[in-house]
Specification:
about 210 residues; 9 helices; alpha/beta; six-stranded parallel beta sheet; globular; 2 domains; single chain; Rossmann fold; about 35% helix
């Protein structure tokens, strides 16, 4: 299969945006209590924070209206720098994201406000093969996502990285990691991929130190 060597496909949540933090802040505000991360390896937000069905519904509704929701998700450390490095290398960036149609404008607003460059956005439907169809049309040289199952299904993409956020997603997880690039951040993934594209990128995680007076 032919692919476009100058096109990169990036997921948004878990790759560029810290969705978990944005959701936790938003849900805590609307529910009037500080949510605790009780089941960090569980993918479902309802189960991760052990919310009731009513609380879960209220939290997701708030994601549409609160400034810390879909329109204001925080950027993951190093993601902006990694995206800029891709852009400066002359690559075309397509954001491939699985979100409801009524969230698209908020996603675009969040990307632009955060300074995350993108050339186009491909919105996919839900389902096990939700991104495969889009990737077959885009034909990227690189695909980065935090869902291992989606990365595995993109076997036709020559370079792919799974961003491991510690969520238990795949029963055959340990046996399949070797089939794809493995990283814990977009910055790390791009630093590994960059040399094969003729450029270098490195990023040192920001460390905030409190100075005692």
């Amino acid at each position: 299969m032919n692919f476009d060597k100058n096109t990169v496909a990036l997921d948004a949540d878990g790759v560029q945006f810290d969705f978990d933090l944005g959701f936790r802040v938003t849900a805590s505000k609307v529910l009037g209590r500080q949510l605790e991360l009780l089941n960090p390896r569980v993918y479902s937000m309802k189960e991760r924070y052990e919310m009731t069905s009513k609380e879960n519904s209220l939290a997701w509704e708030a994601m549409m209206t609160e400034p810390t929701g879909w329109r204001g998700l925080p950027v993951l450390d190093g993601a902006k720098e990694a995206v800029e490095a891709i852009r400066l290398a002359g690559k075309r960036i397509i954001v491939v994201t699985k979100i409801p149609t009524d969230v698209v404008d908020l996603r675009v607003e969040n990307l632009k406000k955060s300074g995350l460059h993108f050339d186009d956005i491909a919105v996919t439907k839900t389902g096990n093969n939700c991104k495969t169809e889009a990737l077959l049309k885009i034909k990227p040289a690189l695909f980065v996502d935090d869902r291992l199952d989606l990365v595995k299904k993109a076997s036709f993409v020559p370079n792919k990285f799974w961003i491991d956020l510690g969520h238990e997603q795949d029963d055959d997880q340990e046996q399949t990691v070797g089939a794809v690039g493995y990283s814990n951040s977009l910055a790390s993934a791009i630093s590994q991929w960059a040399p094969s594209q003729g450029f270098c990128f490195s990023y040192r995680k920001k460390i905030i130190q409190k100075i005692k007076k």
